[in-house]
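FIELD: query
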Amino acid sequence: MMRRIGIVAIALLVASCGSAPPASPRTVPVDPEPPPEDFEAIGVDEVLARCDGGDQRFCRLAGQLRLGAQLSWHDFAVSPDPDAARASFAAACGAGDLDACADELWAKALQAPIDAAMVARATELCTKGSALGCTLAGIGAGKELANKALLGKACDGGEQVACGILVREGDSARAAEGCERGTASMCYAAALQAKDEATAIGFLVRSCQLGTFAGCMQLAVMNQLGQHGPIDPTFLRSTYERGCKQGVDQACQSLAYLYQIGLGVERDPAKAFAIDLASCRAGEDVAPCARIAIAQLLGEGVPADPKAALATLEPLCAQSSMSACVGTALAELKGLGGKKKNVAHARAALAPYCPAERGSGIPRACTTLGQLAEMDRDLAGALELYARGCSRLWTDACWGEARLTRDAARKKALMDDLCARKFAPACAARDQSD
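FIELD: result
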């Protein structure tokens, strides 16, 4: 069964019903079943040429390409052209391809609201066996879904868009059923609707196995926080690299963090700085901007420039950026960038960013507070603060916990982990203890 470009129209048409924001046609994954030809050898230009030359077998795919669909079997660049797409679909429809007839309606829906005539045509196609036609007929004209029975028929026929709408409308059984049929998006939807963590994780694992990046990303975050199995550096790196290449900002930020702490990759503050710099320039989040300013403040991976760093950190802190406020406190703690050194004030400023809940807060704040407590010979307090920072895998925090803990098993596990990250002091300490 084909997966169709109609999902673009769904995003546009049901946005007013509480669904996700409209998707760009060029970012919609579609993987239609190809005609009996080796498409990878033919190439996109040849597909378009064969349709335009009268080979109607290629016209439905040509129409999808002209709507801007992304196909798993080929990288391409085709400028979206809805009018040309509709012409291609019409050619395939004239050759008897019912789903191409429905695709023609979808293409029209990208340019104008669904009207009664379109619904009538979609209903006709549905009665003739087009699951895609049933989907459009089920949506109907106007803001409310017109016919859930038709959507159910479309979903039963393997139309994922219809299944997705029903799931969003609260039909949780559809999500589980779709996952059983091997539909990745349904596995992810089932995970979101699961009533217990174990069931949710099971669906996330399945969605990730089937290729849903959102499922893999959520599993990676859980794994990194110690909420799903032993930490798997290889899985974390591959997931974050994949997401960052796809332009997922959170994946890029997570990848920068791996380079900062040396988990699954060689510890490389300069690489972390470069990735965060790109995220900062993308403008989706101020956190990476704060982190590159802290790197400038402390000279981590880039030449130190405290004054320039503070010029970034102070306004961001005023905008409630936690990382930026930690940076300004560090400047005050060390007397950098023209700030007057005030240890007591800096310490108080850092405290809110190291809460007692493990896995939260800013690990650099916990580490710094741990170092201050250790200097005061409050070793129990220092150990607790280091442990909070280490729950986020921050290297210096884990080193502090490893040095101070009296739990032999915990100490060994931390030393082994740090040495695996090529943290030289931990390797030397472990070798001495052996």
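FIELD: remark
The CA atoms of residues 66 and 85 lie 5 Å apart.
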